[in-house]
Specification:
heterodimer, A: 244 residues, alpha/beta, Rossmann fold, six-stranded mixed β-sheet, three-stranded antiparallel β-sheet, 8 helices, 9 strands, B: 265 residues, mainly alpha, 14 helices, 74% helix, globular, transport (chain A), ABC-2 type transport system ATP-binding protein (chain A), ABC-type transporter activity (chain A)
Chain lengths: 244, 265
């Protein structure tokens, strides 16, 4: 892998086998040794290869259920691939409606855990701690367990951690739906204030404006297949045609 | 040369810091969430010692010298093993938030949990040593041989980590492993030389000191701490081979099954 490459996906595919019966206990498995569960095969992602360079913002387009989220999880290293391989150069963070936070922990603890998981040292987290709290507007709830937070507060904290701590490669899955209108404006402002510049980002969005504005390249997916990967305008065109 | 490489790796990576941070938070969650705090950790072995003392020394008159110390050291070892195995079967489910959104190495989750259990163990061990050295009459003094407790305890940690890996990965496929393991540890308790004199145990259950991984640990821990003797070397060597094999098996399972935990759980 070249040094300028952030992410390399080679011949990756993913198939899920969805079982109709629940064979998830030792007892059930023993009693049904000669009666294996019926499994439904779902090809969530068909064979695909591509490369994302460091500092590039790539968009992913496609209708619901086309495999965008599966692809993102494979690229982030959350799911293992069935075939091929994904080479990741650095830490990854997947962000959709939330990021990985424990509801049993306080906002402070979650910031330290998330920051550390994203590859930061404690001293580095100390330095950005106040920025994260202030951006999330949670100054009065620093030592409250987030299980007592409203869903909007949790989402704001997640967004703030992602924006301020950030991994080497960020996967943003419909993140502009977070928080109230005021917070959304703030989130967009962060993006526009060059946050995205110089970062490797894979952006999943149904908003053409967002994709057009930030992405230098984009992929269009349909039925688990990467139909097109390249020019953003062309990908948008294909997506619009698919929605007709 | 190797120390430079190690220092360089440590400077660039935050792995050690992260494992320690997760261990501290885990420890805090376990013991500081209730008012009694760390006392709970001590209350368990104390109540067990009380019950077994009444049963085996007062009622059955087994006649083990310094029975409280004899029990205490065995129980803290056994409880560490049970907490690190039964308590972690659902770890991939409980700690899903750590690996569901990032490419964090799952092994770090296990290491931090076992490290948090080690903190509890050291607390119990310190109290045991205070009791043994200053309060229990007629016992041998602690000596340099007592330092063999370090490799013995590390062996226990490897066993616990191995079982934790094996069980929690089986859990991904079979949820009732929790109940099955409860039965196994229930039987395992009585098939360990926790309560009985070693001679009686070996006579009645020949070979179990090798088969049951915790037996060897308890026998050797008593040898080096209570009796000022060397560990039984063959038992200790066997324990290391046994635990290394189980750890290898556990790591294979983590690689095969654990890697799919995000989609299966």
């Amino acid at each position: 892998m070249k040094n300028s490459t952030a992410l390399l996906a080679k011949n990756i595919s993913k198939t899920f086998y969805i079982s109709e019966d629940s064979h998830n206990t030792v007892k059930h498995r023993l009693f049904n040794l000669f009666n294996p569960p019926r499994k439904k095969k779902v090809s969530a992602l068909k064979m695909t290869s591509f490369e994302i360079n460091k500092g590039e913002c790539v968009g992913l387009l496609g209708r619901n259920g086309c495999g965008k989220s599966t692809l993102v999880k494979l690229l982030a290293g959350v799911y293992p691939t069935d075939t091929g391989y994904v080479k990741i150069n650095g830490s990854t963070m997947l962000m959709n409606l939330g990021v990985g936070m424990s509801h049993e922990l306080t906002a402070r603890e979650n910031i330290y855990v998330s920051g550390s998981v994203l590859g930061l040292k404690i001293k580095e987290i100390d330095a950005i701690f106040d920025t994260i709290i202030d951006f999330a507007e949670l100054r009065d709830f620093v030592d409250t367990k987030i299980k007592y937070f409203s869903s909007g507060m949790v989402a704001r904290l997640g967004f703030s951690i992602a924006v301020n701590a950030g991994a080497d490669i960020m996967f943003l899955d419909e993140i502009f739906a977070v928080g109230d209108m005021k917070f959304q404006e703030k989130a967009i402002k962060v993006f526009e204030s060059s946050w995205i510049e110089g970062k490797t980002v894979v952006l999943v969005s149904h908003s053409m404006d967002v994709i057009r504005k930030y992405c230098s390249r984009a992929g269009f997916m349909k039925n688990g297949e990467m139909v097109y990967f390249g020019d953003t305008e062309k990908a948008i065109e294909l997506y619009m045609a698919d929605n007709q | 040369m190797s120390s430079t490489v190690l220092r360089d790796w440590n400077n660039r990576s935050n792995k050690i810091e992260r494992i320690w941070l997760l261990a501290k938070i885990e420890f805090k969650l376990r013991y500081y969430e209730n008012k009694l705090g760390l006392l709970w950790a001590l209350l368990k072995p104390i109540s067990e010692i009380f019950i077994f003392y009444v049963a085996f020394e007062i009622v059955l008159k087994q006649g083990v010298p310094n029975f409280v110390s004899f029990l205490f050291i065995a129980l803290i070892m056994w409880n560490f093993f049970v907490e690190s195995t039964a308590g972690t079967i659902q770890i991939l489910n409980a700690k899903k938030y750590l690996y569901e959104y990032t490419n964090m190495n799952k092994l770090e989750i296990y290491l931090s949990t076992i490290l948090s259990n080690c903190i509890g163990f050291f607390f119990n061990l310190s109290l045991f040593l205070i009791y043994f050295q200053f309060l229990d009459n007629g016992t041998a003094e602690l000596s340099l041989k007592s330092l063999y407790i370090i490799p013995i305890f590390i062996n226990l940690v490897v066993f616990s980590l191995a079982f934790s890996l094996i069980l929690s990965n089986i859990y991904v496929l079979a949820k009732d492993i929790t109940q099955i393991w409860l039965v196994i540890t229930g039987v395992g308790f009585w098939l360990s030389p926790i309560l009985f004199k070693l001679e009686l145990f070996r006579k009645a259950l020949p070979g179990v000191d090798y088969l049951n991984p915790i037996s060897g640990i308890i026998i050797n821990a008593r040898n080096v701490i209570l009796y000022n003797k060397n560990p039984e070397w063959d038992l200790m060597a066997f324990g290391w081979v046994y635990s290394s094999f189980l750890l290898f098996l556990g790591l294979i399972l983590l690689n095969k099954i654990g890697s799919k935990a995000a989609e299966k759980l």
